[in-house]
UniProtKB/TrEMBL annotation:
Keywords: Signal. Residues 45-217 form the Metallo-beta-lactamase domain. Belongs to the metallo-beta-lactamase superfamily. Class-B beta-lactamase family. Residues 1-20 form the signal peptide. InterPro entries: Metallo-B-lactamas (IPR001279), NDM-1-like (IPR050855), RibonucZ/Hydroxyglut_hydro (IPR036866). SMART domains: Lactamase_B. This is MBL fold metallo-hydrolase.
Length: 285
């Protein structure tokens, strides 16, 4: 008996089991925002759903392993009406992962660059590809609600959109907002620190004090929450730019740190070190 082969097979099964179970305890939670609009949280990017008469809209789809839990929650909130439209705010896997599993009879809507990037990903299921794309703006009328999709200049990625529920004064900002956290700016997919900061400034001017803001990650917030994020980015960029002006290397900047004021923005994915490195190589001064 070849015990090494048995051991290897056991290890493979353990890995597959761990992958299958990584979201076993995750539940999809809803927060009612009014006008039959709900913020949904689980694992990965925040979602939203809108029950518009006989139509049901979902924004983003988290990970593939959560598809049935997402479907179940949407059916619960819609009183059994199936999903009809799915919007992807950008290309990342924690926002498009369940596309294929939820795609039957569903119009998947995204920026044209999202389709291009997903088509270049040989592992992404064809069934989950966007079926409707645009490059500037798209308006949907759903049961008296105007759902406006604004494509933004490259910032988090080169395919970011922001979704406005105009009459309800609710906006889903996708990963143009990491509420209370250092943001992820994916330069490998066209992202830009300059674009991210500029977009944040532009979006603040489009909000009012009662706008409900769904972030890509973090808690439901408002205009003041977006302003706090902008203030953090501007202040920490200034700190890192001063380090560079003093001739510090990237590692010296990391060792120096941003100071006690900004430590609470550190999280497990974009740590203080990773944020400093992002700013050190930023395309702005």
């Amino acid at each position: 008996m070849n015990y090494s082969i048995i051991a290897a097979c056991g290890l493979i099964l353990t890995v597959f089991s761990a992958q299958a179970d990584r979201f076993a305890d995750v539940q999809i939670q809803e927060t009612a925002l009014g006008s039959n609009i709900y913020m949904l949280s689980g694992a990965g990017g925040n979602m939203a759903t809108f029950v518009a008469g006989d139509e049901v809209l979902l924004i983003d789809s988290q990970y593939a392993e959560l598809a049935e839990k997402i479907r179940s929650k949407v059916l619960q909130l819609s009183a059994g009406k199936p999903l009809s439209r799915l919007i992807n705010t950008h290309v990342h896997g924690d926002h498009v992962g369940s596309n294929a599993a939820l795609s039957a009879g569903v119009d998947i809507i995204a920026h044209q660059n999202v389709l291009v990037r997903l088509q270049q990903d040989g592992a992404f299921p064809t069934a989950g590809l966007p079926t409707t794309t645009f490059i500037e703006q798209l308006r949907l009328r759903m049961n008296g609600m105007t759902v406006r999709l604004d494509a933004m200049p490259a910032s988090h990625t080169d395919g970011d959109i922001v979704v406005w529920f105009e009459e309800a004064n609710i906006v889903h900002m996708g990963d143009l907002l990491f509420e209370g956290r250092f943001p992820f700016i994916d330069t490998s997919k066209g992202g830009s620190v300059k674009g991210y900061i500029n977009n944040t400034r532009q979006l603040i001017n489009m909000l009012n004090d009662t706008t409900k803001v769904i972030p890509g990650h973090g808690n439901l917030t408002d205009k003041a929450g977006v302003q706090r994020s902008l203030a953090m980015m501007e202040a920490t960029l200034a700190i890192v730019n001063e380090f560079k002006a003093q001739g510090m290397t990237e590692q010296q900047a990391v060792d120096k740190g941003l100071g006690e004021q900004w430590k609470k923005w550190h999280w497990n994915f974009i740590t203080e070190e990773r944020w400093i490195k992002t700013l050190y190589h930023a395309d702005v001064n």
